[in-house]
Amino acid sequence: MPGRFILKYDFLEAPRVWDAISSEVSANYPQDDLIRIRLGLTEIINNIVEHASNGQDDARFSLRILNLESGLFLCMSYAGPAFVPPPDALDAEKVLASERTRGRGLWLISQCFTQVKYRDRGLTQRVIARL
User: Fold this and answer.
1) How many CB atoms neighbour CB 21 within 10 A?
2) Which partner for 131 in 50, 72, 75, 106 could form a disulfide, CB atoms 3.0-4.6 Å apart?
3) Residue whose C-alpha is closest to residue 19's, from 9, 7, 30
4) β-sheet with 124-130: strand ranges across
5) Angle at Cα 109 formed by Cα 87 and Cα 37, nearest 5°?
6) What are phi and psi of 108, to 5 degrees?
7) Residue 85 CA neighbour count, 13 Å, CB half
8) In terms of Cα–Cα distance, which of 2, 20, 24, 4 is closest to 12?
9) CA-CA distance, 100 to 38, in Å (whole number)?
10) pTM of the model
11) Residues 124, 78: Cα–Cα separation, whole Å
């Protein structure tokens, strides 16, 4: 499986990433998991592009994929502001009942993966998702 991708902050990157990794991932996971991986990965990439790019045309983020016995790990690293999800971001009742247009993506990501961590590494931020 390809281990690392360096990608431009661009909404078109999500389908490109999926095309690059899908043949290798699909051999190891059932269709339901593949849908979750693709949907969650797309939402994470879209959040990075929307909230961390700060309008920079040449900004990049990296994606590392680890397929270990303990599960599939996706690690996205990017330069941008630190992010800590608000406490109610993962509360399904509040998120789905809200009329807010923001915040549903975090809940969706949490539904796609068994674990999601947001790490502040100073100038570099990381999102680590595990299936």
Assistant:
1) 21
2) 72
3) 7
4) 4-8, 60-68, 71-79, 124-130, 115-121
5) 160
6) -60, -45
7) 23
8) 20
9) 24
10) 0.79
11) 5
Task: Collect all residues with Cβ–Cβ distance below 8 Å to 52 and sequence separation of at least 6.
Answer: 9, 59, 61, 78, 79, 80, 81, 83, 125
Phi, psi of 96 (to 5 degrees): -75, -25
72-117 pLDDT per residue, tens: 898 988 887 777 777 766 666 666 656 655 667 888 888 899 999 9
- Which of 82, 87, 123, 120 lies closest to 106, judged by CA? 87
For residue 52, give Cα distances in angstroms to 46, 75, 107, 116.
10, 16, 18, 18
Q: Mutual orientation of helices 31-52 and 13-26 as an angle, nearest 10°?
A: 150
Q: In one letter, which amino acid is 99?
A: E
